[in-house]
Structure formats: C-alpha cells, structure tokens
Amino acid sequence: MTYTIEKVTTLIGARRYGDKDTNIGFILTDSRSLCFPEETLFFALKSERNDGHNYIPELYRRGVRNFVVTNVPKGYASDYPEANFLKVVNTLEALQRLAERHRDEFNIPIVGITGSNGKTMVKEWLHQLLSPNMFVTRSPRSYNSQIGVPLSVWLMNEQTEVGVFEAGISQPGEMLALRDIIQPTIAVLTYLGSAHQENFESLEAKCREKIILFHDAETIVYNGDDEIVARVVGEYHDYKGEKLYWSLKDSAAPFYVKNIEKKGNLSIITYIYKGEEDSYSLPFIDEASVTNSIIAAVVSRKLGLTAEEVDKRMSLLEPVAMRLEVKEGQHGCTLINDSYNSDINSLDIALDFMSRRPDHKGRRHTLILSDIFQSGENPKDLYKEVSDLCRKRGVVKFIGVGPQLYEQSDEIQISEKFFFRNIEDFIKSEVFASLRDEVILLKGARQFGFDQLTELLVKKVHETTLEVNLNAVVANLNYYRSFMKPETKLVCMIKADGYGAGAVEIAKTLQDHRVDYLAVAVADEGVTLRKNGITSNIMIMNPEMTAFKTMFDYDLEPEVYSFRILDALIKAAEKEGVTGFPVHIKLDTGMHRLGFDPENDMEELIARLKHQNAIIPRSVFSHFVGSDDDSFDAFSAQQFALFDKGSKQLQAAFDHKILRHICNSAGIEHFPDRQLDMCRLGLGLYGINSRNNKTINCVSTLKTTILQMHHIKAGESIGYSRRTILDKDSVIAAIPIGYADGLNRHLGNRHAYCLVNGQKAEYVGNICMDVAMIDVTGIDCKEGDSVEIFGEQLPVQTLSEILDTIPYEVLTTISNRVKRVYYQD
Ligand SMILES: *Cc1c(COP(=O)(O)O)cnc(C)c1O
What we know:
Layout: E1 3-4, H1 5-11, E2 15-17, E3 23-24, E4 26-28, E5 40-43, H2 56-61, E6 66-69, H3 76-79, E7 84-87, H4 91-104, E8 110-114, H5 119-130, E9 136-138, H6 148-153, E10 162-166, H7 175-182, E11 186-189, H8 203-210, E12 219-221, H9 227-234, E13 242-243, E14 246-247, E15 255-263, E16 266-273, E17 276-282, H10 287-302, H11 307-314, E18 324-328, E19 334-338, H12 344-356, E20 364-370, H13 379-392, E21 397-401, H14 403-407, E22 416-420, H15 423-428, H16 430-433, E23 438-443, H17 450-457, E24 465-469, H18 470-481, E25 489-493, H19 495-499, H20 503-512, E26 517-520, H21 523-531, E27 537-540, H22 548-554, E28 556-560, H23 563-576, E29 581-586, H24 602-610, E30 615-621, H25 633-652, E31 659-661, H26 665-670, E32 678-681, E33 688-689, E34 694-695, E35 700-705, E36 708-712, E37 717-718, E38 724-725, E39 730-735, E40 753-756, E41 759-764, E42 772-775, E43 786-790, H27 796-802, H28 807-812, E44 819-824
Parallel strand pairs: 4-5, 5-6, 6-7, 8-10, 8-11, 9-10, 11-12, 12-13, 14-15, 19-23, 20-21, 20-23, 21-22, 24-44, 25-26, 25-32, 26-27, 27-28, 28-29, 29-30, 30-31
Antiparallel strand pairs: 1-3, 2-7, 15-16, 16-17, 18-19, 18-44, 24-35, 33-34, 35-43, 36-39, 37-38, 39-42, 40-41, 40-43, 41-42
Helix pairs in contact: 4-7, 5-10, 8-9, 12-13, 21-22
The structure holds pyridoxal-5'-phosphate (PLP).
C-alpha cells in the first residue's frame, strides 16, 4: 500500500517544499535502518540527545528523497534538488497523525493490547491462533512506544484482515496518542502490575491511564477478578460496548474459567462462554502462560474461532522467544539466532541487526531461513520481497529450508543460494559441512527443526554461561543520560573486559548508540576493540610505556598522569613523527593513586606541553573517591574545588577547548551540577547503582546447570576436607562451576546460596576448582535444570556483601572460560 507524497502532505497537514512526485511505502525514523531509499519517508525526530535533522545529508546521499522536518535546510533547492521536504510543527506528532489516517482506511477488527506484562506473548499467541483463518498484521517484536506504535500500524496493507497491536506506556499522558492511532475495536488489559510504577502515584492511577485505550472500543477484555481494574472499569457509567471480562471466581462472568488442571507438562483449562462449556489444553504449566492463554482464548472466541479450533491450536502453541542471541559458532562462524516468529517484519529487524554489527574479519553474511507462514500472501510475492530485503541488507549467501522456499527458489535473487526441502537434507549436505568464517543469521520456525540446527552449529561450551542483556545496557545508558544535559559528552568505561560482561560486544552496542568515548585499561584491550571494528574514540587509562607505538598505530588516546610518562610519550611520538596526538591529563585531587598535583604541578605541566607539538591535551580529568556515599560529600566538594582550579588553569593556557570531567556513575546521579563537559559511566552501565546498591536493569546473569543429583544420608560429609556434615537426609546436586570460573571459595559451606527453579539452594562443602555442590533438599528439580548463580533473580550485590567486597570484584573475576552469551529482547 503506498501513498503519493501529495496525499501524505495533506494527511499530516504539512507545507511542502520541493515538487518531485513519488510514492511512499516505507517509514524511517532511525537512519541506521535504511533499506529502500527511493520509497522511504524519513521523519526527522528530535529527542533530548539527538536530532534526526542531522542525518538528512547522509540519507540524501544514500538515496532518500522525502523528509518530514521542522526546519527545511537552507538552500534546499540547490543542495537537495531531488528532495521533498514536508514542514510540520512536530515531527513525532506528524508520524502519529499519518499512522492514524492510515488506520482510518481499515474497517476490520483491530485488537489493542496493553498491560504491565504479557502484551507480547498474548499478541504472538493470538497471531498463532488466528493466522490459519485470517491475515494478521501485528506489532513486530515489542514495538509498543510512541514511535513503535505508529510504525506498527503503518504495516497494515490491503491483505490485512485483523490487526493486533501492543500499546506500552511508562508515563501519564501517553495512552491517548496510542489510542488514537490504534483505535482498537477490541481493547485488552492483560495484567496490572508494578512495572514503570515510579511515574504513577498509585496502581489505580496507572490503571486509569491504561484503560484510556478502552474508550470507544466495541469490546473490552480484562480480568474481572482484579479489584482495582474492575472498580476503575465500573466508573465508566456511559460505556456502551461489551464488557467481556474473564473470571476464575464469578460463574456469571462472560468468560468463566471453571477449572485449571495441570497434567504433566499440560494445563487443561475448562471454561464457559456463551452458556457452553468447553476446554482446551495448553503445552505450558507456568502461571503467566496460563493467564495469557486465557486472554488469547477470550479474544479468539470473540473473533469467531470455534471451541474446537481454539483447542486444536492451543495445543500447538509455541513459546515466544523474545531474544535475538549472538553465539560463537563452529569453524570461525558467529551465529545470530532469532527463533522469534518467522514473519517478514521480524526478519527485517534481524537482518538490520546483523548488518549493523561491525565485523572485524569482514566475514560474509549468510541467512538460513525456513518457510515463512504468512497466510494470504502469494508465496511468489512474499519471497521476492524476502530476496529484496536480503540484498539491501547485504546477505551474500542464502540457504532456504522448507518445501515452499524450495519451490520458490527462482524468486531469491542472490548469487550464492541453496535450497533444501527439510532440515535433515540440509544437515547431510556439503553446504552444511562447508560453513566457514561466516556471520550466520538463523531464522526459522520451530517445526522446521531449527533448534537441532542451532545445537549443531554452536561451539560446544562448558555449561556455565554469563548471559548479557544488551537491551539492559542501553536502558542503563539512557538512565544515566537522563541526569545529564543533552550536550554533555559521555565516556563509557569498558575496562576489565567490560566489567566482566565482554568488552567487544558491549562496545558494539555503545558505538551503535553513539557514545563519545570508550575507555579501557591497557593498550591491548584497545587493539582488540579496533580489530573488531570499533571506530569510536578510545581512551587508555593505564598506558604502558612499551605500548606507545601501538597506541599511535591504532588511534588509542592515553591518559597522562606524571611527568615521567609525559616525557616518554612525547619522545616516542617525536620519534614516530606523530604530531597533535590527543591525550587526557589526569589530576590527583584526593585519591592519591595517579595524577598530577593540581596545586604544585600545573605551571611545569603547561610549560612542557607548550614546548612541543607531538601531543595535545584533549581532556583533563580527576576521579571522586566517594561519590557513592553522602558522608564524603564535604570531601567531594574539596576535590571538585581543587579540580576546578587546576583544570581551568590548564584551559586558560590553550586556545582549543579542553574537555573537563570528574563524575563517575555515582557522581552523575549525585552531582549533576558537576557534570562539566563530560562524564564517565562505569558500573551503572552494567546495571548496578552504587548509590543505593539496587539494580537498575540487570545486565549479567551467571548460569549453570545441574550435572548430577545424589540422595545422601544424615551424618555424611560433602566435599574436600569434610567441611559440611549433613544434619539430615539430603538431596545434593553438583554443578559445573568452581573457583577457577570465579566462584569464590568463601561462598562454600552454607555461606551463600544460588537459585534452583527460583528457590534458594545453599553451597555445601568446600567449593572445588571446577565443580560445586549445592543442597537441593525439598526443591523440585532434576539433572539438567538451570541454576542461577547471580543475575536477574539473585542480585550480584547479595554475593558481594557475603564476601565483604564490592560488586565490581565479583563481576570482574568471572574467568574467561565462562562463555558470554549476548542477547537482545
Ligand atoms: C573505573 C573508572 C570510572 C568508572 O567508575 P564507576 O564507579 O564504575 O562508574 C571512572 N573514572 C575512572 C578514572 C575510572 O578508573
């Protein structure tokens, strides 16, 4: 479905500059995701830190011709002769307006889903339940924000028979805009919980905001057993539509859930709808899945599915994999595993992810794709579209698995391409055996056996892994940025291998989010980043005298903290013929670790810097000793005063701007008026708030699995030196993690615990080099079950407190043999 630029101009009420006629099929808000320039309309959105207008020249060069802006570039007619600029007052509102007008074109059922949890799962399951009967357009992944919702709604086209969209809010006032865009005929509130509660005065206030989505919907779906929800809905006296709530208690409810029975791995749900009793079985037993399935059942029955259809399809539901994982593969390959439902929109997001991640070795990009289920669309057109996407996103090798792709192989216009009817044929083939040094995106539906494929392709690792959530890194970055002025620059500290999380992948993510500097401890860490395609500015905090040449060669900017290193650096630079190499001057204001003395050294330092042109001070900085603790506030003030004086003295001696910085993570939060030109974010990026010892967004989770279980009698001892004697008959499990992995020996002998299926299991006996034993008496578990050492459920701070240390130490001592697995929601 396309719109002429003229039509778009009218729909969003813009003033048009430029007169080229074009058709618009794609909307772009993030310049990095450009795919089809000719038919793209770019919305130059402004955020506190970024301004889409800055990307117009680059996008024009790359072929984009249509822009929605608040400011038309000066001299547009000569600089951008082929372009149309649509001038509006607010580009975000214009985007929302366009989506709203697009929505108006459709007279079909539209399901709008809001709630604190479960939105994505309900949406995905509804898609699985409905798609055999009708063509469903839904939000890709969790595109549910003020920008995500319009982009989702825009995806509806002539074929769409039902739309399913998520609406997520984090602040009062946001739902109104989302409601106007989605205009749901069926509005769903999944669950009211405490997510984003900080911005609302009460749960009830948040509930009122959420159910703004309900206004004007023909049918509203909610939990009749939730008192707050029922009360707030009850206030709606003039609501004329259908209140289709579900209840486990009220047999008069429109959808009465009469019974929930668990049988092995199945849940059997019996319900009464429109006076008839029916049931379905679900292949999951956890509470969230059961609730989400009930909501999906209510909506699908409302949309006309029969009880038999619901039962049959519920039994086939697939888990919703939200993650896009990056794993190390066999034979020099990197695997990007995205088992999230295979549809063309999520394929595009995954391809975008692959094409954006820099790759040091310039390895080829390969896609292994299964048949896509998108009923309604003609397969020829569908795979033609897939082929276009792949070419635009730089895929050079295409492997199709499934009967439909096999049939449609002609539509895939990629020179290196292979097709197989099923996964077994592929695995037996030469093509499979010869996968080497490639970045491989695996995108396939479960029923094609892609699980098995992934297992064969990943490098076999020790069962202990550190899972790193890259979205959480970004969320933490934004959390700290929210304390900073938009113009303040940021250094992200990724020393000690990214505080244990793995510097390279963290750096890729940070570079993608345009941080100004990355900082590592030693030159070799910087070289590794460069070799992995990191082009951001890099600072070296502990430069070794032996590595100056490496720093010049790889553009790594050293910290300079003493006259000895200053002189050696100047000498080395002069010898290599280097001039104007940027360095960072450190002042010691109270830590008494490294740095020049701001009271006594400044004159001499300035004189020596002025006397040469090999190096040039780009920044000057110092470090707080106690910004995390209010009791040091007076000392921090003294440090700041010293720094302020010394750094101003340095600046006064030079004409160019020298960036001044002193705040670390805790400082950013505690002393926003001391942010100066730049801040240095460390621990906070990894989710740990050292001011209150809370977790902001958990980044790293250390996990392992149960190797073996034993029933041991009371009086027996566990482990070396018989340090734990059992006082009752117990069940003891062995897990493959020991002190050589970074599991501190002091945690043994019941000093600490890990979590097995959410329950605390104490370490018993001395922790061994590669294995530890835990007490799982009374915990429902078996061999192969997952064990959390720290992370999402068990904060790393719990362990650091027991060990009488700080989280920094626990994170950075996880050894290299523990594989890091990265994922994105
Ligand atoms: C490590 C480090 C930081 C970051 O400190 P956090 O407390 O982790 O935020 C900042 N500046 C310097 C000089 C550092 O060495």
